[in-house]
Amino acid sequence: MDRLFVFFKNKFSPFIKGRHWRIRVSLICVLYCILVSMPNYGNFNTARLKKSRSYSVLIENYNAINQQIDHPFNHNEAAEATHASKLDFRFVPALLAKAIPAHDLLSRMLGLYVINNIAGFIFFMCLLRLVFEYSQNRLFAALIAMNFAVLYLGKSFFHDTLLWNDGIAFMFLALSLSERNYLILFSCLLLAFFTDERALFGSLLAFVYQRLRNNQPEKPGKHPFYPAIPFLSAYLIYFLIRFWLKRSMGLAVPFGGDNGISLFLRFQKGFPVWLSFAAALLAYKSAWIMVVLSAWWLRSRKIDFPVYFFGLISVLVISVSVQDITRSLAYGFIAVIIGFFLFYTKFHETHSERTERAVFTIFIINLCIPTIQITYIRDFKVFPPLYKLIWPELHSI
Q1: How far is CA 3 from the centre of its chain?
Q2: 383 within domain boundaries
Q3: Each residue of 42-81: pLDDT tens digit?
Q4: How much is the pLDDT for 187?
Q5: In a domain, 5, yes or no
Q6: Rounded distance between C-alpha atoms, residue 161 and residue 58, angstroms
Q7: Whose CA is closest to 157, among 189, 119, 193, 106?
Q8: Which domain holds residue 155?
Q9: Coil, strand or helix: which one is 327?
Q10: Which residues lie below 8 Å from residue 103, measured CB to CB, with a gap of 6+?
Q11: Nearest-CA neighbor of 127 among 203, 178, 202, 167?
């Protein structure tokens, strides 16, 4: 591994030199994600879309998004178990899509997909910025960005032709980490919440990171309320706006039924526990070690540890209460960022090169573990009989 690290460092060094190194590294991450995430561009072609095995799911989702672009604050009628039924309070992507000049369905969807791609590039740029801010180490920052590129999170910006639009929420959460201006931070949080409500729980981890960055990680934080102002304000305004939209516009999402713990219990009858565990493991692969270590290093901090623990557990509970475990777990990605931050602050002064080597080792392990979003295995044409053996009822969903 040492020889491999030296070889990588020598070959990669030219990319992190010069003024625009962040752009180069971000483009490398984007190119890698596009090459390995296998986005199905045929979903934006009428003839090929009609031949898709997921046609009914795609067209229902596309029509719902298209209607939301035209009327972002109108209630969308859809079957309770579908993704389209949960779009009412996820209107930020629709508002962004209003900038798309086309008006036909698939051109709009392609435009929204491009917006997700742009969000991915901004995400990697933001990640490089915030890591370099505390480390002043370009190689370390690049390795962390590349670690996220080989996780499901990095690929989500580019493989998502179904347009769940999680990538836009991830981008706003990442922007909230790097902002010191409380007004911009508040705005990023609010935009993330109205992209997907799961960002509410991911933002708890963002609060912990902001406190760690603005205080000495080894010492108990002072003035705990002041850093919480933009977060508490964003939560309050989000729920007030949501309540107002529900009362005045009739917006609503289904509660219960094919959601929550009842869904999890139903799936367990035909979905092996080991496969649920695999779906969770694939969310962060070997980077889970950073999540565990950050919890251990935060254990003595009276405010940060409870918030961190609650945020992480909330994301875990939500993930096993929906169909897409890997995708939902990605909303806890800030826990990995916190882990890398604490790891660097604890060891860089005495073991500078070893910190780079450790992050490189995690990167190589993650690179070697394939990323498959378990519950969407039906979309991989290589495995048509296999998914029915793993989960017999999956083909009918």
Answers
A1: 33
A2: yes
A3: 999 999 999 888 888 899 999 999 999 999 999 988 877 7
A4: 97
A5: no
A6: 9
A7: 119
A8: 20-396
A9: helix
A10: none
A11: 178
Q: How many CB atoms lie within 10 A of CB 101?
A: 7
What are the tens digits of pLDDT across the range 192-202?
Answer: 999 999 999 99
Residue of 45, 69, 65, 67 whose CA lies nearest to 55: 45
Q: Flag whether 11 is in a domain.
A: no
Tokens 């996820």 belong to: 90
152: left (phi > 0), else alpha (psi -120 to 50), else beta?
alpha
Q: Distance between CA atoms of 169 and 161, rounded to whole angstroms? A: 16
Do residues 30 and 167 make contact, with C-beta atoms less than 8 angstroms apart?
A: no
Which amino acid is located at 151 in the chain? L
In a domain? residue 3: no
CB atoms within 10 A of CB 18: 9
Neighbours of 263 (CB within 10 A): 17
What own/partner pairs with CB < 8 Å and gap ≥ 24 does 15-23 have?
Answer: 15/142, 16/138, 16/139, 16/142, 21/138, 21/142, 22/125, 22/128, 22/129, 22/132, 23/125
Q: Which two tokens stand for residue 201?
A: 């729980």
Query: Which tokens in the block code for residue 373?
Result: 């979003």
Residue of 243, 175, 226 lying closest to 203 (CA atoms): 175
Virtual CA dihedral for 187, 188, 194, 195, nearest 10 degrees?
160
Q: Alpha-carbon distance 123 to 166, whole Å?
A: 12
> At what angle are helices 138-149 and 152-159 packed, to 10 degrees?
60
Buried b (16+ CB within 10 A) or exposed e, 220-245: ebeeeeebbebbebbbeebeeebeeb
**DSSP 8-state assignment for residue 77:** P
**pLDDT, average across residues 301-313:** 95
Of 334, 289, 348, 287, the residue nearest 137 (C-alpha): 348
Query: Rounded to an integer, what distance in angstroms lies between the CA atom of residue 122 and that of residue 174?
Result: 9
Query: Helix (H, G, I), strand (E, B), or coil: what is residue 376?
Result: helix
Mean per-residue pLDDT over the chain, rounded: 86
Nearest of 290, 190, 314, 186 to residue 242 by alpha carbon: 190
Cα R_g (the chain), whole angstroms: 21
Domain count within the chain: 1
pTM: 0.90
